[in-house]
Design a protein that fits this description.
With 591 residues, the protein is an alpha+beta fold. 42% of the residues lie in helices and 9% in strands. The protein is built from 23 helices and ten strands. A hairpin with a 2-residue loop joins strand 1 and strand 2.
Amino acid sequence: MLDAAELTKRLNAQLDAAYNEYDVAKAKGDEAGMKMALARQEILIPAISLLALGAYDRAVALLAAKGVEFEGKAASVRASPLPAPATDPFEPPEKVEFSDAQLDAAAAKQPSAEPAKVAAGKPAGWSEDYQKLWDTMEIRAEWRDDAEFAARKAVENQKRYAAVVSGTTVPWWFVAIVHCMECGFKFDRHLLNGDPLSGRTVRVPANQPPFGSPPYDWETAARYAMTYEELDKITDWSLPNVLNRWHRYNGVKNEYQRRKIPTPYLWSGCYHYDKGKYTRDRYFDPEVPSKQVGAAIILKTLIEMGAVSLGATNVLKANPLAATENLSLLSHDLPGAAFKSIEQELAFPGALKLGSSGAGVKRLQEWLHLNGCYTSVDGDFGASTETMLDRFAKAQGRSGATMLDEELWAVLTAPLRRAVAKVVPGASFEETVLKVARQHIAERPKEAGGNNCGPWVRAYMRGADGADQLWCAGFVSLIFEQAARDMGIKVPLKRQAGVDALVADAKTSGRFIAESEVNTALLRASRLRPGYLFVIRKDAKDWTHVGFVLSIGPTSFDTIEGNTGGEGGVDGDEARQNNRSYPSRDFIRLI
Protein backbone atom coordinates (compact mmCIF):
# COMPACT_ATOMS: atom_id res chain seq x y z
CA MET A 1 0.00 0.00 0.00
CA LEU A 2 1.19 3.51 -0.75
CA ASP A 3 2.50 5.39 2.24
CA ALA A 4 1.07 8.82 3.12
CA ALA A 5 3.92 10.75 1.54
CA GLU A 6 3.64 9.00 -1.81
CA LEU A 7 -0.14 9.23 -1.83
CA THR A 8 0.07 12.95 -1.05
CA LYS A 9 2.51 13.41 -3.91
CA ARG A 10 0.24 11.60 -6.39
CA LEU A 11 -2.87 13.48 -5.28
CA ASN A 12 -1.08 16.82 -5.49
CA ALA A 13 -0.03 16.00 -9.05
CA GLN A 14 -3.66 15.34 -9.94
CA LEU A 15 -4.68 18.56 -8.15
CA ASP A 16 -2.15 20.51 -10.23
CA ALA A 17 -3.69 18.98 -13.35
CA ALA A 18 -7.17 19.98 -12.18
CA TYR A 19 -6.01 23.56 -11.58
CA ASN A 20 -4.49 23.67 -15.07
CA GLU A 21 -7.63 22.25 -16.61
CA TYR A 22 -9.67 24.94 -14.89
CA ASP A 23 -7.41 27.70 -16.25
CA VAL A 24 -7.58 26.29 -19.79
CA ALA A 25 -11.36 25.96 -19.63
CA LYS A 26 -11.72 29.47 -18.26
CA ALA A 27 -9.59 30.90 -21.08
CA LYS A 28 -11.86 29.16 -23.59
CA GLY A 29 -15.06 30.21 -21.86
CA ASP A 30 -15.86 26.51 -21.32
CA GLU A 31 -18.18 26.70 -18.32
CA ALA A 32 -18.82 22.94 -18.21
CA GLY A 33 -15.08 22.26 -18.24
CA MET A 34 -14.56 24.77 -15.43
CA LYS A 35 -17.24 23.08 -13.32
CA MET A 36 -15.76 19.64 -13.89
CA ALA A 37 -12.29 20.85 -12.92
CA LEU A 38 -13.71 22.44 -9.78
CA ALA A 39 -15.54 19.22 -8.93
CA ARG A 40 -12.24 17.31 -9.14
CA GLN A 41 -10.51 19.91 -6.97
CA GLU A 42 -13.23 19.66 -4.34
CA ILE A 43 -12.65 15.89 -4.12
CA LEU A 44 -8.88 16.07 -3.94
CA ILE A 45 -8.41 19.02 -1.60
CA PRO A 46 -10.09 17.51 1.51
CA ALA A 47 -8.19 14.25 1.02
CA ILE A 48 -4.84 16.05 0.82
CA SER A 49 -5.77 18.03 3.92
CA LEU A 50 -6.57 14.85 5.87
CA LEU A 51 -3.25 13.36 4.83
CA ALA A 52 -1.45 16.47 6.04
CA LEU A 53 -3.13 16.02 9.41
CA GLY A 54 -2.08 12.37 9.63
CA ALA A 55 -5.57 10.99 9.01
CA TYR A 56 -4.51 8.46 6.36
CA ASP A 57 -7.44 6.06 6.76
CA ARG A 58 -9.96 8.90 6.62
CA ALA A 59 -8.35 10.25 3.45
CA VAL A 60 -8.57 6.86 1.75
CA ALA A 61 -12.18 6.42 2.88
CA LEU A 62 -13.08 9.87 1.59
CA LEU A 63 -11.55 9.14 -1.82
CA ALA A 64 -13.37 5.81 -2.03
CA ALA A 65 -16.67 7.44 -1.04
CA LYS A 66 -16.24 9.95 -3.85
CA GLY A 67 -15.67 7.29 -6.47
CA VAL A 68 -11.87 7.45 -6.61
CA GLU A 69 -10.35 3.99 -6.87
CA PHE A 70 -7.61 3.35 -4.33
CA GLU A 71 -5.68 0.22 -5.23
CA GLY A 72 -4.57 -1.32 -1.97
CA LYS A 73 -1.67 -3.32 -3.39
CA ALA A 74 -0.90 -1.25 -6.46
CA ALA A 75 1.94 1.20 -6.74
CA SER A 76 -0.16 4.23 -7.56
CA VAL A 77 -3.50 5.91 -7.46
CA ARG A 78 -5.17 5.83 -10.83
CA ALA A 79 -3.78 8.80 -12.76
CA SER A 80 -6.59 9.01 -15.31
CA PRO A 81 -9.20 11.77 -14.97
CA LEU A 82 -11.27 11.32 -11.85
CA PRO A 83 -14.77 9.93 -12.40
CA ALA A 84 -17.71 12.03 -11.32
CA PRO A 85 -19.26 11.24 -7.93
CA ALA A 86 -22.43 9.17 -7.92
CA THR A 87 -24.49 12.25 -7.08
CA ASP A 88 -24.72 15.53 -9.01
CA PRO A 89 -21.10 16.24 -10.01
CA PHE A 90 -21.57 19.94 -9.27
CA GLU A 91 -23.04 19.47 -5.83
CA PRO A 92 -20.61 20.72 -3.15
CA PRO A 93 -18.52 17.82 -1.79
CA GLU A 94 -18.39 17.01 1.86
CA LYS A 95 -16.68 19.72 3.86
CA VAL A 96 -14.09 18.40 6.30
CA GLU A 97 -14.85 20.19 9.54
CA PHE A 98 -13.63 20.04 13.11
CA SER A 99 -15.79 20.56 16.16
CA ASP A 100 -15.73 23.65 18.35
CA ALA A 101 -14.44 21.47 21.16
CA GLN A 102 -11.41 20.51 19.09
CA LEU A 103 -10.76 24.09 18.09
CA ASP A 104 -11.18 25.37 21.62
CA ALA A 105 -8.81 22.68 22.93
CA ALA A 106 -6.18 23.79 20.42
CA ALA A 107 -6.68 27.43 21.32
CA ALA A 108 -6.44 26.73 25.06
CA LYS A 109 -2.95 25.22 24.97
CA GLN A 110 -0.54 27.25 27.08
CA PRO A 111 3.07 26.19 26.45
CA SER A 112 6.00 27.85 28.13
CA ALA A 113 7.12 31.26 26.86
CA GLU A 114 9.36 31.27 23.84
CA PRO A 115 11.68 34.01 22.60
CA ALA A 116 10.61 36.22 19.71
CA LYS A 117 12.24 36.35 16.28
CA VAL A 118 12.04 32.57 15.74
CA ALA A 119 9.53 31.21 13.26
CA ALA A 120 9.55 27.42 13.31
CA GLY A 121 10.56 24.38 15.33
CA LYS A 122 8.50 25.21 18.42
CA PRO A 123 6.96 22.68 20.80
CA ALA A 124 3.37 21.54 20.29
CA GLY A 125 0.83 24.31 20.80
CA TRP A 126 3.23 27.21 20.40
CA SER A 127 1.58 28.43 17.22
CA GLU A 128 -1.72 28.95 19.09
CA ASP A 129 -0.34 30.62 22.22
CA TYR A 130 -1.86 33.96 21.30
CA GLN A 131 -1.04 36.02 24.39
CA LYS A 132 2.65 35.13 24.47
CA LEU A 133 2.97 35.64 20.73
CA TRP A 134 1.31 39.05 21.05
CA ASP A 135 3.45 40.07 24.02
CA THR A 136 6.67 39.15 22.20
CA MET A 137 5.63 40.38 18.75
CA GLU A 138 7.99 42.75 16.97
CA ILE A 139 6.81 44.10 13.63
CA ARG A 140 9.43 43.94 10.90
CA ALA A 141 10.42 47.39 9.63
CA GLU A 142 9.85 46.41 6.00
CA TRP A 143 6.22 45.53 6.79
CA ARG A 144 5.33 48.84 8.47
CA ASP A 145 4.06 50.53 5.31
CA ASP A 146 1.78 47.59 4.47
CA ALA A 147 0.42 47.49 8.02
CA GLU A 148 -0.25 51.23 8.07
CA PHE A 149 -1.90 51.10 4.65
CA ALA A 150 -4.23 48.34 5.86
CA ALA A 151 -5.04 50.21 9.07
CA ARG A 152 -5.82 53.39 7.12
CA LYS A 153 -8.10 51.52 4.73
CA ALA A 154 -9.92 49.96 7.68
CA VAL A 155 -10.65 53.38 9.21
CA GLU A 156 -11.51 55.00 5.89
CA ASN A 157 -14.21 52.36 5.27
CA GLN A 158 -15.49 52.29 8.85
CA LYS A 159 -19.08 53.18 7.95
CA ARG A 160 -19.48 50.13 5.74
CA TYR A 161 -18.13 47.82 8.42
CA ALA A 162 -20.27 49.51 11.09
CA ALA A 163 -23.35 48.94 8.92
CA VAL A 164 -22.55 45.22 8.71
CA VAL A 165 -22.13 44.74 12.48
CA SER A 166 -25.01 47.01 13.49
CA GLY A 167 -27.18 45.23 16.06
CA THR A 168 -24.47 42.69 16.95
CA THR A 169 -21.56 42.61 19.37
CA VAL A 170 -19.05 42.12 16.56
CA PRO A 171 -16.54 45.02 16.43
CA TRP A 172 -16.31 46.85 13.10
CA TRP A 173 -12.52 46.52 13.09
CA PHE A 174 -12.75 42.71 13.32
CA VAL A 175 -14.75 42.65 10.08
CA ALA A 176 -12.43 45.26 8.52
CA ILE A 177 -9.39 43.06 9.10
CA VAL A 178 -11.19 39.97 7.77
CA HIS A 179 -12.05 42.07 4.72
CA CYS A 180 -8.36 42.85 4.26
CA MET A 181 -7.28 39.23 4.72
CA GLU A 182 -9.96 37.62 2.55
CA CYS A 183 -10.67 40.29 -0.06
CA GLY A 184 -7.79 42.77 -0.08
CA PHE A 185 -10.36 45.47 0.81
CA LYS A 186 -12.27 44.86 -2.43
CA PHE A 187 -16.01 45.38 -2.08
CA ASP A 188 -16.86 43.06 -4.98
CA ARG A 189 -15.78 39.94 -3.07
CA HIS A 190 -17.44 37.57 -0.58
CA LEU A 191 -16.22 38.16 2.97
CA LEU A 192 -16.37 34.38 3.48
CA ASN A 193 -13.44 33.59 1.20
CA GLY A 194 -12.81 36.36 -1.32
CA ASP A 195 -14.72 34.82 -4.23
CA PRO A 196 -16.49 37.29 -6.59
CA LEU A 197 -19.92 38.54 -5.54
CA SER A 198 -21.09 37.93 -9.10
CA GLY A 199 -21.93 34.38 -8.03
CA ARG A 200 -22.10 32.11 -5.01
CA THR A 201 -18.80 31.08 -3.47
CA VAL A 202 -16.78 28.45 -5.34
CA ARG A 203 -13.98 27.75 -2.92
CA VAL A 204 -14.51 26.39 0.59
CA PRO A 205 -17.11 27.08 1.87
CA ALA A 206 -18.76 26.58 -1.52
CA ASN A 207 -22.23 27.57 -2.77
CA GLN A 208 -22.74 30.34 -0.22
CA PRO A 209 -24.92 32.15 0.57
CA PRO A 210 -27.76 29.67 -0.03
CA PHE A 211 -30.38 32.39 -0.56
CA GLY A 212 -31.14 35.01 -3.17
CA SER A 213 -29.70 35.32 -6.63
CA PRO A 214 -26.25 36.67 -7.55
CA PRO A 215 -24.85 39.22 -7.80
CA TYR A 216 -24.90 40.00 -4.07
CA ASP A 217 -24.28 43.38 -2.50
CA TRP A 218 -21.27 43.42 -0.21
CA GLU A 219 -23.10 44.27 3.03
CA THR A 220 -25.61 41.42 2.62
CA ALA A 221 -22.92 38.86 1.87
CA ALA A 222 -20.71 40.15 4.69
CA ARG A 223 -23.52 39.97 7.23
CA TYR A 224 -24.23 36.42 6.10
CA ALA A 225 -20.54 35.56 6.55
CA MET A 226 -20.74 36.71 10.18
CA THR A 227 -23.73 34.45 10.73
CA TYR A 228 -22.11 31.53 8.90
CA GLU A 229 -19.01 31.82 11.09
CA GLU A 230 -21.26 32.33 14.17
CA LEU A 231 -19.47 35.56 15.04
CA ASP A 232 -22.80 37.10 15.99
CA LYS A 233 -22.92 34.70 18.95
CA ILE A 234 -19.58 35.83 20.41
CA THR A 235 -19.60 38.05 23.49
CA ASP A 236 -15.91 37.83 24.48
CA TRP A 237 -13.86 40.18 22.31
CA SER A 238 -10.77 40.20 24.49
CA LEU A 239 -7.39 40.03 22.76
CA PRO A 240 -6.70 36.25 22.94
CA ASN A 241 -10.22 35.39 21.82
CA VAL A 242 -10.08 37.90 18.95
CA LEU A 243 -6.83 36.37 17.69
CA ASN A 244 -8.31 32.91 18.07
CA ARG A 245 -11.40 33.91 16.09
CA TRP A 246 -9.32 35.20 13.20
CA HIS A 247 -7.27 32.00 13.34
CA ARG A 248 -10.43 29.90 13.20
CA TYR A 249 -11.83 31.98 10.37
CA ASN A 250 -8.82 30.95 8.30
CA GLY A 251 -8.57 27.43 9.77
CA VAL A 252 -6.67 26.00 12.74
CA LYS A 253 -6.14 22.34 11.87
CA ASN A 254 -3.67 22.66 9.04
CA GLU A 255 -0.02 22.51 8.05
CA TYR A 256 0.88 25.52 10.17
CA GLN A 257 -0.23 23.70 13.28
CA ARG A 258 1.36 20.43 12.23
CA ARG A 259 4.70 22.14 11.57
CA LYS A 260 4.38 24.40 14.66
CA ILE A 261 4.52 27.54 12.50
CA PRO A 262 2.58 30.56 13.79
CA THR A 263 0.01 31.14 11.09
CA PRO A 264 0.82 33.98 8.67
CA TYR A 265 -2.88 34.85 8.70
CA LEU A 266 -2.11 36.36 12.11
CA TRP A 267 1.65 36.88 12.27
CA SER A 268 3.00 37.58 8.79
CA GLY A 269 5.00 40.80 9.04
CA CYS A 270 6.56 40.09 12.43
CA TYR A 271 9.52 37.97 13.54
CA HIS A 272 7.34 35.07 14.69
CA TYR A 273 6.77 34.05 11.09
CA ASP A 274 9.36 33.36 8.40
CA LYS A 275 8.02 31.21 5.57
CA GLY A 276 5.61 28.47 4.56
CA LYS A 277 2.13 29.08 3.15
CA TYR A 278 -0.76 27.60 1.24
CA THR A 279 -0.21 28.71 -2.34
CA ARG A 280 -3.80 27.68 -3.10
CA ASP A 281 -6.56 25.87 -1.26
CA ARG A 282 -5.04 22.97 0.71
CA TYR A 283 -1.70 23.08 -1.12
CA PHE A 284 1.16 23.96 1.25
CA ASP A 285 4.64 25.02 0.18
CA PRO A 286 7.08 25.20 3.13
CA GLU A 287 9.52 27.45 1.26
CA VAL A 288 7.17 30.21 0.11
CA PRO A 289 6.72 33.20 2.44
CA SER A 290 3.41 35.01 2.78
CA LYS A 291 3.23 38.36 1.03
CA GLN A 292 0.19 39.51 3.00
CA VAL A 293 0.44 41.39 6.28
CA GLY A 294 -1.11 39.45 9.17
CA ALA A 295 -4.25 40.29 11.15
CA ALA A 296 -2.39 40.72 14.45
CA ILE A 297 0.00 43.20 12.85
CA ILE A 298 -2.91 45.24 11.46
CA LEU A 299 -4.62 45.21 14.85
CA LYS A 300 -1.41 46.38 16.54
CA THR A 301 -1.16 49.22 14.03
CA LEU A 302 -4.79 50.23 14.60
CA ILE A 303 -4.00 50.42 18.31
CA GLU A 304 -0.91 52.54 17.64
CA MET A 305 -2.99 54.88 15.46
CA GLY A 306 -5.62 55.24 18.17
CA ALA A 307 -8.47 53.61 16.26
CA VAL A 308 -8.64 50.78 18.82
CA SER A 309 -7.53 50.67 22.44
CA LEU A 310 -6.29 47.72 24.48
CA GLY A 311 -7.13 47.93 28.16
CA ALA A 312 -5.25 46.54 31.12
CA THR A 313 -7.57 43.52 31.22
CA ASN A 314 -6.98 42.74 27.53
CA VAL A 315 -10.30 44.24 26.52
CA LEU A 316 -10.27 45.73 23.03
CA LYS A 317 -12.43 48.79 22.43
CA ALA A 318 -12.99 50.81 19.28
CA ASN A 319 -12.38 54.55 19.38
CA PRO A 320 -15.78 56.12 18.55
CA LEU A 321 -13.93 58.82 16.60
CA ALA A 322 -13.02 56.22 13.98
CA ALA A 323 -16.61 56.65 12.82
CA THR A 324 -15.50 59.96 11.27
CA GLU A 325 -13.31 57.88 8.91
CA ASN A 326 -10.62 60.53 9.39
CA LEU A 327 -7.27 59.45 10.85
CA SER A 328 -6.38 62.96 11.95
CA LEU A 329 -9.41 63.00 14.24
CA LEU A 330 -8.55 59.84 16.17
CA SER A 331 -6.77 62.05 18.67
CA HIS A 332 -7.00 65.79 19.07
CA ASP A 333 -4.84 68.46 20.62
CA LEU A 334 -7.06 71.07 22.28
CA PRO A 335 -4.84 72.72 24.90
CA GLY A 336 -5.50 75.74 27.07
CA ALA A 337 -8.34 78.17 27.51
CA ALA A 338 -8.78 78.75 23.77
CA PHE A 339 -10.03 75.21 23.26
CA LYS A 340 -11.60 74.30 26.59
CA SER A 341 -15.12 75.15 25.43
CA ILE A 342 -14.58 73.15 22.23
CA GLU A 343 -13.53 70.12 24.27
CA GLN A 344 -16.74 70.50 26.25
CA GLU A 345 -18.75 70.97 23.08
CA LEU A 346 -17.44 67.73 21.61
CA ALA A 347 -17.86 65.67 24.78
CA PHE A 348 -20.37 62.83 24.43
CA PRO A 349 -23.61 63.91 26.20
CA GLY A 350 -24.60 60.34 27.03
CA ALA A 351 -26.92 57.66 25.65
CA LEU A 352 -29.87 59.94 24.99
CA LYS A 353 -33.23 58.49 23.97
CA LEU A 354 -36.97 59.09 23.97
CA GLY A 355 -37.87 60.89 27.22
CA SER A 356 -34.42 62.38 27.84
CA SER A 357 -34.15 66.12 28.40
CA GLY A 358 -31.68 68.85 29.21
CA ALA A 359 -28.63 70.56 27.73
CA GLY A 360 -27.31 67.34 26.20
CA VAL A 361 -30.51 66.84 24.22
CA LYS A 362 -30.36 70.45 23.05
CA ARG A 363 -26.81 69.93 21.79
CA LEU A 364 -27.96 66.80 19.95
CA GLN A 365 -30.83 68.71 18.35
CA GLU A 366 -28.49 71.50 17.27
CA TRP A 367 -26.17 69.04 15.54
CA LEU A 368 -29.08 67.27 13.88
CA HIS A 369 -30.17 70.68 12.59
CA LEU A 370 -26.65 71.41 11.30
CA ASN A 371 -26.63 68.05 9.52
CA GLY A 372 -29.88 68.78 7.71
CA CYS A 373 -32.17 66.80 10.02
CA TYR A 374 -34.39 69.59 11.27
CA THR A 375 -36.26 69.28 14.54
CA SER A 376 -37.12 71.64 17.39
CA VAL A 377 -34.16 72.76 19.48
CA ASP A 378 -35.97 72.63 22.82
CA GLY A 379 -34.00 70.20 24.99
CA ASP A 380 -36.73 67.54 24.97
CA PHE A 381 -36.09 64.19 23.24
CA GLY A 382 -39.49 63.56 21.70
CA ALA A 383 -40.79 61.63 18.73
CA SER A 384 -39.46 64.20 16.23
CA THR A 385 -35.93 64.04 17.64
CA GLU A 386 -36.08 60.25 17.56
CA THR A 387 -37.22 60.32 13.92
CA MET A 388 -34.46 62.72 12.90
CA LEU A 389 -31.78 60.71 14.72
CA ASP A 390 -33.01 57.58 12.95
CA ARG A 391 -32.96 59.43 9.63
CA PHE A 392 -29.43 60.70 10.23
CA ALA A 393 -28.18 57.21 11.12
CA LYS A 394 -29.65 55.73 7.96
CA ALA A 395 -28.12 58.53 5.88
CA GLN A 396 -24.75 57.42 7.27
CA GLY A 397 -25.29 53.85 6.05
CA ARG A 398 -26.15 52.54 9.50
CA SER A 399 -29.31 50.81 10.51
CA GLY A 400 -31.88 52.97 12.21
CA ALA A 401 -31.11 54.40 15.64
CA THR A 402 -33.48 55.29 18.46
CA MET A 403 -30.71 56.16 20.91
CA LEU A 404 -27.63 58.35 20.57
CA ASP A 405 -24.37 56.39 20.88
CA GLU A 406 -20.76 57.56 20.83
CA GLU A 407 -20.17 56.69 17.18
CA LEU A 408 -23.22 58.63 15.98
CA TRP A 409 -22.18 61.55 18.15
CA ALA A 410 -18.69 61.47 16.61
CA VAL A 411 -20.19 61.57 13.11
CA LEU A 412 -22.63 64.35 14.03
CA THR A 413 -19.86 66.53 15.45
CA ALA A 414 -17.26 65.62 12.82
CA PRO A 415 -17.44 69.07 11.11
CA LEU A 416 -16.21 70.86 14.24
CA ARG A 417 -13.62 68.16 14.86
CA ARG A 418 -12.29 68.61 11.32
CA ALA A 419 -12.25 72.39 11.67
CA VAL A 420 -10.02 72.34 14.76
CA ALA A 421 -7.73 69.54 13.56
CA LYS A 422 -4.09 70.49 13.10
CA VAL A 423 -2.88 71.81 9.76
CA VAL A 424 0.61 71.64 8.31
CA PRO A 425 1.95 75.14 9.06
CA GLY A 426 2.66 77.54 6.22
CA ALA A 427 5.82 79.58 5.73
CA SER A 428 4.44 82.48 7.78
CA PHE A 429 1.90 83.11 10.49
CA GLU A 430 -0.45 84.79 7.99
CA GLU A 431 -0.21 81.84 5.61
CA THR A 432 -0.98 79.42 8.43
CA VAL A 433 -3.91 81.57 9.56
CA LEU A 434 -5.46 81.34 6.11
CA LYS A 435 -4.96 77.58 5.96
CA VAL A 436 -6.84 77.27 9.24
CA ALA A 437 -9.54 79.72 8.09
CA ARG A 438 -10.11 77.74 4.89
CA GLN A 439 -10.35 74.56 6.97
CA HIS A 440 -13.08 76.16 9.06
CA ILE A 441 -15.24 77.51 6.24
CA ALA A 442 -14.97 74.17 4.43
CA GLU A 443 -17.13 72.81 7.28
CA ARG A 444 -19.74 75.55 6.76
CA PRO A 445 -20.00 76.93 10.33
CA LYS A 446 -23.54 78.10 10.95
CA GLU A 447 -25.79 79.14 13.79
CA ALA A 448 -28.39 76.70 15.13
CA GLY A 449 -31.23 77.10 17.60
CA GLY A 450 -31.53 80.88 17.48
CA ASN A 451 -29.74 84.14 16.66
CA ASN A 452 -26.03 83.82 17.47
CA CYS A 453 -26.64 80.40 19.01
CA GLY A 454 -25.34 76.88 18.55
CA PRO A 455 -22.14 74.84 18.87
CA TRP A 456 -20.16 76.84 16.32
CA VAL A 457 -20.91 80.10 18.09
CA ARG A 458 -19.96 78.61 21.46
CA ALA A 459 -16.72 77.29 19.94
CA TYR A 460 -15.76 80.78 18.77
CA MET A 461 -17.07 82.60 21.86
CA ARG A 462 -15.54 80.25 24.48
CA GLY A 463 -18.81 78.68 25.51
CA ALA A 464 -21.12 81.71 25.26
CA ASP A 465 -24.01 82.14 22.83
CA GLY A 466 -27.17 84.19 22.53
CA ALA A 467 -28.48 87.20 20.63
CA ASP A 468 -25.85 89.55 22.09
CA GLN A 469 -22.91 87.25 21.23
CA LEU A 470 -21.77 88.78 17.93
CA TRP A 471 -19.11 86.26 17.01
CA CYS A 472 -17.06 87.66 14.11
CA ALA A 473 -14.20 88.68 16.46
CA GLY A 474 -14.39 85.33 18.25
CA PHE A 475 -14.12 83.62 14.86
CA VAL A 476 -10.88 85.36 13.86
CA SER A 477 -9.47 85.02 17.39
CA LEU A 478 -9.91 81.25 17.53
CA ILE A 479 -8.34 80.92 14.10
CA PHE A 480 -5.17 82.79 14.98
CA GLU A 481 -5.00 80.89 18.28
CA GLN A 482 -5.28 77.63 16.34
CA ALA A 483 -2.60 78.76 13.86
CA ALA A 484 -0.24 79.56 16.74
CA ARG A 485 -0.90 76.11 18.23
CA ASP A 486 -0.08 74.41 14.94
CA MET A 487 3.11 76.44 14.50
CA GLY A 488 4.17 75.84 18.09
CA ILE A 489 4.49 79.56 18.85
CA LYS A 490 3.00 82.00 21.28
CA VAL A 491 -0.12 83.76 20.02
CA PRO A 492 1.24 87.08 18.67
CA LEU A 493 -1.87 89.16 19.40
CA LYS A 494 -4.36 89.26 22.21
CA ARG A 495 -7.72 87.58 21.79
CA GLN A 496 -10.67 89.95 21.84
CA ALA A 497 -14.36 89.15 21.74
CA GLY A 498 -15.29 92.57 20.33
CA VAL A 499 -14.20 94.40 17.17
CA ASP A 500 -13.61 97.73 18.92
CA ALA A 501 -11.24 96.02 21.35
CA LEU A 502 -9.31 94.44 18.45
CA VAL A 503 -8.90 97.87 16.88
CA ALA A 504 -7.83 99.51 20.13
CA ASP A 505 -5.21 96.82 20.73
CA ALA A 506 -3.93 97.16 17.15
CA LYS A 507 -3.59 100.94 17.49
CA THR A 508 -1.70 100.57 20.76
CA SER A 509 0.74 98.06 19.24
CA GLY A 510 1.21 99.90 15.93
CA ARG A 511 -0.50 97.27 13.81
CA PHE A 512 -3.47 99.38 12.68
CA ILE A 513 -3.62 100.49 9.02
CA ALA A 514 -6.22 103.18 8.34
CA GLU A 515 -8.15 103.35 5.07
CA SER A 516 -6.43 106.64 4.28
CA GLU A 517 -3.04 104.92 4.29
CA VAL A 518 -4.07 102.57 1.49
CA ASN A 519 -6.32 104.76 -0.65
CA THR A 520 -4.75 103.81 -3.99
CA ALA A 521 -4.31 100.49 -5.74
CA LEU A 522 -0.52 100.83 -5.52
CA LEU A 523 -0.59 101.48 -1.78
CA ARG A 524 -2.96 98.56 -1.23
CA ALA A 525 -0.71 96.19 -3.18
CA SER A 526 2.37 97.33 -1.28
CA ARG A 527 1.02 97.58 2.28
CA LEU A 528 -1.70 94.94 2.59
CA ARG A 529 -1.11 91.18 2.77
CA PRO A 530 -3.35 88.09 2.69
CA GLY A 531 -3.91 87.02 6.27
CA TYR A 532 -4.37 90.55 7.63
CA LEU A 533 -7.64 91.50 9.31
CA PHE A 534 -10.09 93.96 7.81
CA VAL A 535 -12.53 95.88 10.01
CA ILE A 536 -15.69 97.72 8.92
CA ARG A 537 -15.78 101.27 10.26
CA LYS A 538 -19.11 102.78 11.23
CA ASP A 539 -17.59 106.02 12.48
CA ALA A 540 -14.32 107.27 13.97
CA LYS A 541 -14.94 105.41 17.22
CA ASP A 542 -17.00 102.38 16.21
CA TRP A 543 -16.10 99.31 14.15
CA THR A 544 -18.85 96.73 13.58
CA HIS A 545 -17.32 93.70 11.85
CA VAL A 546 -14.01 91.88 11.30
CA GLY A 547 -12.66 89.13 9.06
CA PHE A 548 -9.55 87.94 7.24
CA VAL A 549 -8.19 89.33 4.00
CA LEU A 550 -7.88 86.42 1.58
CA SER A 551 -6.55 88.24 -1.50
CA ILE A 552 -5.89 91.84 -2.58
CA GLY A 553 -7.44 93.40 -5.68
CA PRO A 554 -7.22 96.97 -6.99
CA THR A 555 -10.83 97.88 -6.12
CA SER A 556 -11.99 95.05 -3.87
CA PHE A 557 -10.61 92.20 -1.79
CA ASP A 558 -11.68 88.62 -1.02
CA THR A 559 -12.35 87.69 2.59
CA ILE A 560 -13.01 84.85 5.00
CA GLU A 561 -15.30 85.93 7.81
CA GLY A 562 -17.72 84.67 10.41
CA ASN A 563 -21.09 85.97 11.64
CA THR A 564 -21.74 87.18 8.11
CA GLY A 565 -24.58 87.03 5.58
CA GLY A 566 -26.88 89.52 7.28
CA GLU A 567 -27.77 93.03 6.14
CA GLY A 568 -24.59 94.63 4.89
CA GLY A 569 -22.85 91.30 5.39
CA VAL A 570 -22.71 91.65 9.21
CA ASP A 571 -24.44 89.84 12.07
CA GLY A 572 -25.34 86.96 9.73
CA ASP A 573 -25.69 83.30 10.60
CA GLU A 574 -22.65 81.69 8.96
CA ALA A 575 -18.93 81.76 8.19
CA ARG A 576 -17.91 81.88 4.54
CA GLN A 577 -15.82 83.51 1.85
CA ASN A 578 -16.95 87.01 0.73
CA ASN A 579 -15.74 89.96 -1.31
CA ARG A 580 -15.57 93.53 0.04
CA SER A 581 -14.85 96.96 -1.40
CA TYR A 582 -12.36 99.31 0.26
CA PRO A 583 -14.47 102.30 1.39
CA SER A 584 -15.04 102.39 5.18
CA ARG A 585 -12.56 99.54 5.68
CA ASP A 586 -9.46 99.65 7.87
CA PHE A 587 -6.88 96.88 8.34
CA ILE A 588 -4.86 95.18 11.07
CA ARG A 589 -1.51 93.39 10.78
CA LEU A 590 -1.30 90.20 12.85
CA ILE A 591 2.37 90.63 13.73
